[in-house]
Specification:
alpha/beta; Beta-Lactamase; 4 domains; 6-stranded antiparallel sheet; about 45% helix
């Protein structure tokens, strides 16, 4: 018969690590003492497992183990009190037991005291046996047997604690994180090898020192003491981030988690018994996070703000109904400079240009590089044309001096376009586009000048309107096609999928670049029906491709604003009958800036359909890290700008390596865009990047060509 909570009792027995171990002098001594005190021939310490009783120590009976059903102690462990049987032969429970019923030397008397753990589980007995009956077993004798059983249990508990201490010490010594133990007065009592590696100080140098010595910042030390006090009260807060200097003088940052044990009661009136601090070196992690946060708002080449930060500030200013002016600056003949002197000189020139433009900024101006050789200044609170014209003149004067760049003397000018928010229903896209149109007008007039945007006279407007008119009929005329750029596993080289790329061939105007027609389609709202066509066409293509093939489709922010994207995707999936997991939707970070709640809802709805979601151009936008926590992404795509400078910019390599690590930490697949050289591929592979796409691996191609390579890959 097993006692209640048998599984828990057996687990408790395992904690002592004694079942099946050979005799030990401590326990043998207790057995002899027990036999002498009670003047019996037999005394035993028994441990009761599931089916077997192990005799840890014995006097007077040569047995090492026996089946549990034959052992008297199987009954003794049923309760917490002694089991005393004056005459085993007269007891119905034991009279037929072979140890009792034998004709010669059968056992007649038994008294067993349970061995109870601090949690109350009985794991065995200390028992005495005799071949003679005992009519009496006095209360004093009972108490003595109980006390001897307590002595056995004390020895067992000491053994358990010693084993636990050994395991704990080994574990803490092997831990990769620093582990520090402090006493109730906040002095260090234990300092593991990982802590020594983090801080550079050995255990001998830190033992007995205040635990606040792990930081050299007075404010951080105060926070640490407060966190220790909070731990005493049972308030476990978030990990602390502390700054200090290692023994060799290096500035390091650590993340510290705190636990406390014990209490101020009983024998420790001075306070809690102790504290445990788990320390993680986050110096490199914080540096990468700070770099990524900086890159989310800044242009890596020039150090000025980037397009996404500019858009964010413009959105905020327009939402507050503020007056703003956008001044865009585009270098004249920059391509010729690149062709003549090389891209290294071109990049160096952009850095110098950024510094010169920054000298001309007013107190409310913001300078951003929004791409290539184009810079934009945002002026808040002022749209006076005279003041803006003066600024434009100063900007052009900044180009009057010859640039000395990497040993070359370079001369260039700039065209400036100006747009203001007082032109009517202005929004961020409209203002930026208007400033661009003003630049085109300045360039068409010979460059090296500035122009204000005037919609009623600007000839570029007619071009945009003409393109919009052509776009409206392009879908019905069948002028759109999809090309597919393949994606490959960088480790195996296996074809894993493709990205669908929209192409437009105008009957009279040749192929038109997506960079030209997609902004017009977005401004006019035509991207919604065009996007639906792209989805339907990609899904139909998937019906012809291998069953494990996946196609990615880009979704515009306008599609999220003007339509139920999830409903549209669900309809296309149902119509084609393909598995949702074969379709991947790609979004850019500009979408996430607009309406987090609505965007999150749409993305969650897409996720619920079973499609996968990729964040495109990761690292170029605003607060990329936050998006990984807020939105249900499956994939992140490293922007081609980082990949293309892997071989020349150490910063790009560090960022790519960090992004791959983030993908791994967030369990996201990482795809690198724009892989064009074997060196880039090798570096991405060494970083652990999952997949890649680019001209080195495969150019965009029609569906029939994709079908051929997909079928060939599938057959191998």
């Amino acid at each position: 018969m097993a006692p209640l909570h048998e599984l828990e009792r057996l687990r408790e027995l395992d904690q002592y690590g004694i079942f099946g171990t050979p005799p030990e002098s401590d326990y043998d001594h207790i057995c002899r003492l027990t036999a002498d005190i009670f003047e019996v021939p037999i005394a035993m310490i028994n441990l009761v497992a599931r089916d077997t009783v192990w005799v840890k120590s014995k006097i007077g009976l040569e047995v090492q183990d026996l089946p549990r059903e034959l052992a008297f102690c199987s009954h003794a462990i049923q309760g917490r009190d002694l089991l005393v049987v004056p005459d085993l032969a007269a007891d119905q429970r034991f009279c037929e037991n072979p140890l009792v019923a034998t004709s010669e030397g059968g056992l007649r008397f038994y008294a067993g005291a349970p061995l109870a753990t601090p949690k109350g589980y009985v794991i065995g007995t200390l028992c005495i046996l005799d071949r003679q009956t005992r009519a009496q077993f006095s209360p004093k004798e009972r108490e003595r047997l109980k006390n001897l059983a307590t002595l056995v249990m004390d020895r067992l508990e000491k053994r358990r604690l010693e084993q636990l201490e050994l395991m704990t010490s080994s574990l803490m010594n092997a831990a990769s994180e620093g582990i520090i133990i402090a006493d109730s007065t906040y002095n260090t009592r234990y300092w593991n090898p990982a802590a020594e590696k983090i801080f550079g100080f050995s255990g001998d140098e830190m033992i007995e020192k205040p635990v606040t010595a792990i930081t050299t910042d007075h404010a951080d030390a105060t926070l640490l003491i407060q966190a220790l006090e909070d731990a005493v009260e049972g308030h476990s807060g978030l990990p602390l981030t502390l700054t200090t200097r290692a023994k060799d003088g290096r500035a390091i940052s650590t993340e510290v988690s705190i636990a406390s044990w014990g209490s101020g009661a009983g024998s420790t009136p001075e306070g809690p018994l102790g504290f445990g601090l788990i320390v993680r070196d986050v110096t490199e992690e914080m540096a990468v996070a700070e770099k990524l946060a900086w890159l989310a708002r800044h242009d890596e080449l020039t150090g000025v703000f980037n397009r996404n930060h500019l858009r964010q500030v413009m959105n905020d200013a327009l939402a507050a109904h503020g007056d703003i002016a956008v001044i865009s600056i585009n270098l004249d003949r920059f391509m010729a400079i690149n062709d003549t002197f090389g891209h290294r000189v071109g990049d160096a020139l952009l850095k110098v240009v950024a510094r010169r433009l920054a000298r001309e900024l007013g107190p409310t101006d913001l300078l951003a590089r929004i791409g290539g050789d184009e810079f934009t200044i945002l002026r808040s609170g002022q749209t006076d044309r005279t003041q803006l014209a003066c600024l434009a003149a100063r900007l052009q004067s900044a180009f009057g001096e010859t640039f000395s760049v990497d040993g070359h003397l370079v001369t260039t000018t700039a065209s400036v376009g100006i747009a203001t928010s007082d032109l009517g229903e202005a929004n961020t896209d409209a203002l930026l586009n208007a400033a661009d149109l003003a630049i085109y007008r300045a360039k068409s007039d010979g460059g090296n000048g500035w122009r204000f945007f005037t919609p009623e006279h600007d000839r570029r407007i007619s071009v945009v309107r003409s393109m919009e008119s052509d776009l409206r009929g392009a879908l019905s005329r069948g002028e759109f096609t999809l090309n597919y750029q393949p994606k490959f596993c960088l480790v195996t080289g296996r074809l894993t999928g493709a990205e669908a790329l929209l192409r437009w061939t105008h009957p009279a105007k040749r192929p038109i670049s997506p960079a030209d027609f997609i902004p017009v389609a977005e401004l006019s709202g035509l991207i919604v029906p065009i996007g639906e066509w792209v989805l339907a066409t990609a899904c139909e293509a998937l019906t012809r491709l291998p069953a494990d093939f996946r196609v990615a489709v880009n979704l515009s922010p306008v599609q999220f604003r003007r339509s139920d994207v999830a409903e549209t995707v669900a309809a296309k999936l149902a119509l084609s009958g393909i598995a949702p997991a074969r379709l991947e939707v790609e979004i850019t970070e500009s979408l996430l800036l607009e309406n987090n709640r609505a965007t999150a809802g749409a993305l969650e709805a897409l996720k619920a359909l079973g499609v996968t979601i990729a964040l495109d151009d990761f690292g170029t936008g605003y607060s990329s890290l936050a998006y990984l926590c807020k939105f249900p992404f499956d994939t992140i795509k490293i922007d081609r700008s980082f990949v293309q400078t892997l071989e020349t910019e150490p910063g790009s390599a560090a960022i790519v390596r960090a992004v791959v690590g983030l993908g791994r930490d967030f369990s996201l697949k990482v795809i690198a865009e724009g892989v064009e050289t074997e060196a880039q591929k090798r570096m991405l592979l060494s970083f652990g990047c999952d997949e890649g796409q680019g001209y080195l691996l495969g150019r965009p191609m029609p569906l029939e060509a994709l079908l051929q390579i997909a079928t060939n890959a599938d057959s191998r």
